[in-house]
Amino acid sequence: AQGIEVLELALPEWVTFVEQGIIDGDDVARSVAIVTDKVRAFGADVVALGCTHFPFLRTAIEQALHGVEVLDSGPAVARQVVRVMTSNKSLNDGTHEGVITYLCSGDAARFSDVASRLLGEHVVARQVMV
After folding, report:
1. Contacts of 114 (CB under 8 A, 6+ apart)
2. Distance between CA 7 and CA 48 in Å, rounded?
3. Pairing with 130, which of 23, 37, 42, 63 sits 20 to 30 Å away (CA)?
C-alpha cells in the first residue's frame, strides 16, 4: 500500500522466552515494554505478529500497546491449511483425520514439555533430523 511505513524489528529474545515456555512475568514485561515503546514512538497503529512464537506473548503485547491493533496471521494460515488438506484428495486419504503429529528438530522431551504448557494439552513430539 502506498504511503504505508513499516517498522521491522528482529526480536530473538521473544523467541527465546517462548521456546523456554516463559510467556509472562517481569522479564517478559520489561522486554515487551522496550519494544512497544519503540512501536509507539514510531506511531504505529497496527502491529503484525510476524513470527509463529509471538502469539504466545499476545496478551503482554496488547497490554503494553493500549489501543494499537495486533494482527496474528495464525488463524488465517490454519484455515488455509484446512482448505488445502480437505480439497486435495492426494493429501486427504482419511487415515490421519483429527490426528496432530508434533515433530521437532531439537530435544523432543523438552519440546513436548514446553508445548504441553503453552498449548494446555498433552503433547508428545518426535525428533526429526533436518
Report:
1. 19, 20, 21
2. 10
3. 23
Q: What is the distance in angstroms between the CA of the first residue and the CA of the last residue of the chain?
A: 37
18, 22, 24, 26: CA torsion to nearest 10: -120
Q: Position of cell 523467541?
A: 15
Instruction: Output the tens digit of pLDDT for each of the chain's 130 residues.
Output: 788 999 999 999 999 999 999 999 999 999 999 999 999 999 999 999 999 899 999 999 999 998 899 999 888 888 998 888 778 766 656 666 667 889 999 999 999 999 999 999 999 999 999 8
Distance separating alpha carbons of residues 15 and 56, to the nearest angstrom: 10
C-alpha cell at 85: 488438506
Cβ neighbours for 58, distance < 8 A, ≥ 6 positions apart: 49, 70, 72
In the three-class reduction of DSSP (H, G, I as helix; E, B as strand; rest coil), residue 6 is classed as coil
Cell of 49: 505478529
Backbone angles phi, psi at 7, to 5 degrees: -105, 115
CA 33 to chain centre: 18
- For the whole model, what pTM was predicted? 0.80
